[in-house]
Amino acid sequence: MNLSFAYLIFILVLVIYMVASKNIKRLPSIPLGLFVTSLLLRCLVSIVNVYTWSEGWTSHILVAADVVLTWAVAHIVFWFLMVVISRFKEEKDVLPKITRDFIMFLTFVILLLIVLRIRSDVNLASLLTTSAILTVIMGLAAQATLSNFFSGLIIQAERSFAIGDWISLNEHEGRVVGISWKSTQVLTRLQELVYIPNSILASSTFCNYSKPTRKKIAQLFIGLEYGVPPSTVEQVVIQTLGQNPRVLKRPRVIIRVIEFGDFAITYEIRFWHNSYAHEPQLKADINRQLWYALRRNNIRIPFPIRDVFHGHIERRYSQKQELDLRVEIEQILSNIPILAPLSDSARADLSKRVGIELYGAGELIVQEDEAGDSMYIIRSGACQALRMGQQKKMKLLSTMHQGDFFGEISLLTGDSRSATIEAIEDTSLIVIDKKVFSFVMDESPLISEEIARVVLDRQQKKGVLIEELDEMDSNREKFILRIKRFFGI
């Protein structure tokens, strides 16, 4: 009983460790189940060995305990080797599960035969003969299963794909989430789990989007109007894609003219990324950004044209819209403090020359430290001003809405941007650049002094302007001199 009590204590310790290793990440999860089984068998023998009726079968239990013990030792040794190799190669799974299971199965069969040969009087010749016959019968009955099993081994030997890779076979496309003895499990973009038999994968042509590297080329096709030169289209597209963090900077974006269609020029856009899982969303984001960028640059995406009647009505409607827009812009300009020194006629002339730009949520309008010579007035929507902090993190300075403006210092002096402005919703902006504002300065050179006074007065109030002036600019004469020098007055 003392021996059986020791077995029970040892079994209890092992069970406690197994439970603890599942709840405590620092403890290695050692496979001790076979050890516990072997100890239970030996504990059973030590308990019933005192009874005479147990003499006939305790020896068989001990043989079974020895078999399980050898399996336990082999399992732990194999587990230890896998842990060491995985750390050396810095890989989580050195061997796929199907390969590990096959190795362990062969090991267990060999150990079983060895223990039976040493510890019992089993005739191995007759056992092997019987096993061979049973193997043939089972093989004939399970041809499909065996075909899938060996196909899985071939796939893993070739390492044509691994868990986590994106593959496509016929109509199925998804991420490999498991490889079993019978099938490979693929999780599609619609979160549907598809089981593909290994034999089909081994005998079919499939595509692995994760090899040879994670970098992949994505294609977009877009039809644009004939009136815009391809070089202009290329410039706008490259600039737009450069703002998307998922588009790789190298290799560079490629734009190709594919076809001269009936009503549009078809362009192919080729760019690199390293996340095939997010490619559909990435393409959707880029299409969305391109819509705004093309709209800002007056590049139309045409549609099929048919005979149009009552064209004069549409022209009148367009003229009325244009007139309403200019009246709206002139009203907005009249409420901008730094433009207050302008006469009514100057503001009316300015309203005809300014541009309108539309930005989508998340797009950057200007970036900190970039060159600039334009001012923006929010016609509709909202923006936020950001500045890079000491820890290389963007810090929110303020939020701006309809009627607010920014960039006036860059417009007047050509200074670089002191903050990044990002649209937080669809935002329409009135843009006044140096070329447009020069007409105002040329007609009334003295207006620069009035504008400088208003800007400096607003600067002293703090919190109204986004951009800040240098210390030297607090001197009104020097600030006026900078404005005149910038506009060549």
Description:
A five-stranded antiparallel β-sheet has the order 4-3-2-1-5. Strands 9-16-11-14 form a four-stranded antiparallel β-sheet. The protein has a four-stranded antiparallel β-sheet with strand order 10-15-12-13, with no helix packed on it. It contains 15 helices and 16 strands. It folds into four domains: 2-141, no CATH class; 153-208, SH3 type barrels (Roll), CATH 2.30.30; 216-296, Alpha-Beta Plaits (2-Layer Sandwich); 329-487, Jelly Rolls. It has 489 residues and is an alpha+beta fold.
List the topology elements.
Elements: H1 2-23, H2 33-48, H3 58-89, H4 97-119, H5 124-141, H6 143-158, E1 166-169, E2 172-179, E3 183-188, E4 193-197, H7 198-203, E5 207-208, E6 216-224, H8 230-242, E7 254-260, E8 265-273, H9 279-296, H10 311-334, H11 344-353, E9 355-359, E10 364-366, E11 374-380, E12 383-388, E13 394-400, E14 405-406, H12 408-413, E15 420-423, E16 427-433, H13 434-443, H14 447-461, H15 476-487
Antiparallel strand pairs: 1-2, 1-5, 2-3, 3-4, 6-8, 7-8, 9-16, 10-15, 11-14, 11-16, 12-13, 12-15
Helix pairs in contact: 1-2, 2-3, 3-4, 8-9, 10-11, 14-15
